[in-house]
Amino acid sequence: MAKVRSPNYPSMSLPDAIEAVRKIYEKDHRNRMAKAVVAQHLGYSSLNGASLTAISAVAKYGLLDRSGEEYRVSDNALTILVDPPESTERAEALRAAALQPPLFAEIHRHYQGSVPSEDNLRAYLQKREFTAAAASAASRAYRDTMALVSTGSSAYNGEAMETSSTGAVVTARGVGTARSSGSATPTVTSSASGTEREWQRFNLTPGRNIRLLFSANDEPTRREVDKLIRYLEITKEDLLPDSEGASAA
Q: 188 φ, ψ to 5°?
């Protein structure tokens, strides 16, 4: 009888993968390394099933870049490792890493960004042809990963798209957006995080408006605008599912 194989998923959670890539970075920084060297940095004496599985898991989160038969610590991993915990860039990097594995991105979309209970997620995975053991392992890895994103990405609290019955508001605290030529004078408001400016307001669809806010007094930079665009690109599947996007078009 053929052995039952579960669909592909990372064998470790993102917190564990970050600690693994930290070991690699401490040993070789961002030098290119052969796979055997990566395995040694992770504490393995040779390339075997365990070491190859560990390397694969770290790479699935986008923490290792591969070029031919060589690996190096990725830009995203470097940001996670060296930026301060409150850094917006680190928050973005954590979220990007968490949703890098296709299975995790699928789960995130299926549950619309909420984290299901372990029992609920195990059942979902087993319906996708996971074995019971693999479903349990993948469920724990996903939940631990999203817990890290939740606790380690406080900078996202001011950047999420908030949708209400009266409209959608994009709040970019610390991440500026360019002012449109036709926008009115920015409105200054106050919040728990300090002074905010309404930098742009426009109609998204009839009856739904977008307001862009940021918490800085000077002009936004191109780099900040690019960061906001990247953030929206990363999260657009969660913010606007395909079915909603089709109806709104």
A: -95, 125
